């Protein structure tokens, strides 16, 4: 089993959580992408990995901390 195959479930969990946060904040994907300068659609579809620094910026944008993001998240 390759590292990519191992990481895929984690990537999907993170992508799903980001989509939930965006929707809870009432922000459209296009607006988040324009405001943050990143391809939110690819991240939410788990087609693109996200760095910790980008994840932290997105969390801040959605009004949560990294700790809150990972709270109760089973990776």
Summary tags:
75 residues, 0% strand, 5 helices, mainly alpha, 69% helix
Which class of secondary structure composition applies to the elements?
Answer: mainly alpha
Tell me the overall shape. globular
Unreliable spans are none
How do the SSEs run, as a string of H and E?
Answer: HHHHH
Separate helix tally:
5
Instruction: Note the beta-strand portion.
Output: under 5%
- Compute the separation of the termini in Å: 17 Å
Largest sheet: none
Number of strands: 0
Rounded to an integer in angstroms, the radius of gyration calculated over CA atoms is 12 Å
Task: Report helical residue fraction.
Answer: 55-70%
Average per-residue pLDDT, rounded, comes to 91
Account of the protein in words:
- The protein is mainly alpha-helical.
- Helix content is 69%, strand content 0%.
- The longest helix has 23 residues, at 3-25.
Structure summarized in a few sentences:
The protein is an all-alpha fold and 75 residues long. Helices cover 69% and strands 0% of the residues.
Topology:
Blueprint: H1 3-25, H2 29-36, H3 40-44, H4 52-62, H5 66-70
């Amino acid at each position: 089993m390759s590292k990519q195959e191992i990481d895929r479930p984690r990537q999907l969990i993170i992508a799903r959580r980001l989509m939930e946060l965006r929707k809870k904040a009432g922000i459209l994907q296009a607006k988040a992408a324009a405001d943050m300068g990143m391809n939110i659609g690819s991240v939410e579809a788990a087609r693109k990995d996200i760095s910790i620094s980008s994840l932290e910026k997105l969390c801040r944008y959605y009004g949560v901390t990294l700790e809150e993001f990972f709270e109760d998240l089973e990776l």
